Amino acid sequence: MIQKTFLMVKPDGVQRSIIGEVISRFEKKGFQLVGAKLMHISQELAETHYGEHKEKPFFGELVKFITSGPVFAMVWEGENVISVSRQMVGKTNPQEALPGTIRGDYGLIVDKNIIHGSDSPESAEREISLFFESEELTFYKKDADAWIY
Ligand code: IDP
Hints:
Oligomer: single chain
Strand order of the largest sheet: 2-3-1-4
Helix content: 25-40%
Bound molecules: inosine-5'-diphosphate
CATH superfamily: Nucleoside diphosphate kinase-like domain
Largest sheet: 4 strands, antiparallel
CATH architecture: 2-Layer Sandwich
Radius of gyration: 15 Å
Structural class: alpha+beta
Strand content: 15-25%
């Protein structure tokens, strides 16, 4: 099933120059980048994006962190990209994330875990529309798809 998902390099990943590495991993896997931008998240967008964690003790810190510097927001497309990209991102706590995953390779602490990825078709749709206008997404045919699919 061809899907789209929302992935975002968080402020720690931007500061640590991991944007290129993240893009490279998803490109090499065979997924297609259909939208991307470097941006600052407003307080309001942060609170909406992480709304499901409103009651958690770490909510305030999480909002402060995600608004503390630029993030690199992306939309990726491909076969089962939502669940496959979550596997490539790794477990929430980088100490539990397996080597070979982005968090497992580059993170150490749960509140600085490098990257966000949508966890379901519903959240992918919601997060894509929160961060991108439809005209910011580009659709194009890649000839290399014949060698991936
Ligand atoms: P996910 O990012 O793997 O989907 P969620 O449970 O949705 O994980 O949590 C959202 C984000 O909140 C995490 O990526 C992490 O940055 C932060 N977070 C989760 N649990 C904790 C915690 O116990 N302390 C501090 N931050 C946390």
